[in-house]
Amino acid sequence: MGSGIAHVLALAGIDVDLVDVERGVLDRAVASVSSELRRQVAKGKLTETEASAALSRIRPSTDLRVAAGAGVVVEAATEDVGLKLDIFANVGEIASSDAILASNTSAISITRLASAVPRPDRVIGMHFMNPVPVMQLVEVIRGLQTSDATADHTTALCRDLGKTPVTVNDYPGFVSNRVLMPMINEAVYCVMEGVAEPGAVDQIMKLGMAHPMGPLRLADLIGLDVCLAILKVLQRDLGDPKYRPCPLLARMVAAGRLGRKSGQGFHDYGAKEPSPAAARARQAAG
Ligand code: CAA
């Protein structure tokens, strides 16, 4: 999602340092933003000049120290609390004391991430939806110590990006995933229990409930590893067995079938080499 976030920031005229530990990931991210901008030009939604200006605002880097110059840092790493806490601890040392430190986490506690930095009042959740350039919502999550000034600045930034911020309080899964993930999980149970094939489950929700895509195709878009990680947070932190991840979901992740990004999930997206993301998720699930 980092590339999508960089895309919308750059289109809004904001300079972006796009940071990842792997150069290859950065190359793919910039290529994906570039091809999406070209598509927008082809559709007449952007001029060539606007698209190339946006692309030139994105500076890829493998060095987190670029955060020293940032007014806002948006963390969009894998849904792994240890990794995110490390990133926040590092960014907390590098960034200016009045920078806003935001996380795009899907379910991890903002209050907990804020505990890793010297200014927890400057930490907030900025939860973009996938695909970021298309979806209107940013779920803005206030941690226990988030200040009004941080919340106001963040919602204003969302509006500058052409998005609609909706503010909620820090609680497991916030609102978006507390409501969405049980539906996805139940759809996976329907497949596991032989009630219907994935295509039929999706068609029922798409044609019968007017969802833009069925829950299993959506899970494939989000990433099955991400869905599993979110359900585990809900189950552990809310302590209610109703959030128990469906065993089939865990098996799919263990097999490296992560959805679109690995080429196969509940639906097929064309064969791909097993990706590093798939290998990491297999290890984590095992
Ligand atoms: N990146 C950028 N743009 C994309 C895109 C992507 N990955 N996928 C589709 N689009 C664009 C298309 O180019 C098209 O743009 P134009 O209108 O300019 O032509 C537009 O979106 C519509 O796309 P399509 O016509 O190809 O297909 P569609 O009408 O079926 O829409 C969809 C695709 C936007 C993904 C739609 O199916 C949809 O809204 N699905 C639901 C997505 C959703 O629920 N997202 C939230 C997931 S939860 C989450 O992200 C948070 C979390 O923590 C898990």
Main sheet record: 5 strands, mixed
Query: Could you say what the CATH topology of the largest domain is called?
Result: Rossmann fold
What count of domains describes the coordinates?
2
Portion in beta strands: 5-15%
Task: Characterize the structure shown.
- With 286 residues, the protein is α/β, with parallel strands linked by helices.
- The protein folds into two domains: 2-169, Rossmann fold (3-Layer(aba) Sandwich); 176-285, N-(1-d-carboxylethyl)-l-norvaline Dehydrogenase, domain 2.
- The chain is built from twelve helices and seven strands.
- The protein has helices at residues 2-11, 23-42, 48-56, 81-94, 110-114, 148-160, 176-192, 198-209, 215-222, 224-238, 247-254, 276-285, and strands at residues 16-19, 58-61, 72-75, 100-103, 123-128, 137-142, 164-169.
- The strands form two sheets. It has a five-stranded mixed beta sheet, sandwiched between helices. It has a two-stranded parallel ribbon with strand order 1-2.
- Helix 6 (148-160) links the parallel strand 6 (137-142) and strand 7.
- Helix 1 crosses helix 2 and helix 7 packs across helix 9 (215-222).
- The two termini are 25 Å apart.
- The relative contact order is 0.09.
- The mean pLDDT is 95.
- Bound molecules: acetoacetyl-coenzyme A.
Which descriptors apply to this entry?
286 residues; alpha/beta; Rossmann fold; N-(1-d-carboxylethyl)-l-norvaline Dehydrogenase, domain 2; 2 domains; five-stranded mixed beta sheet; two-stranded parallel sheet; 7 strands; 49% helix; binds acetoacetyl-coenzyme A
Blueprint of the fold:
Blueprint: H1 2-11, E1 16-19, H2 23-42, H3 48-56, E2 58-61, E3 72-75, H4 81-94, E4 100-103, H5 110-114, E5 123-128, E6 137-142, H6 148-160, E7 164-169, H7 176-192, H8 198-209, H9 215-222, H10 224-238, H11 247-254, H12 276-285
Parallel strand pairs: 1-2, 3-4, 4-5, 6-7
Antiparallel strand pairs: 5-6
The structure holds acetoacetyl-coenzyme A.
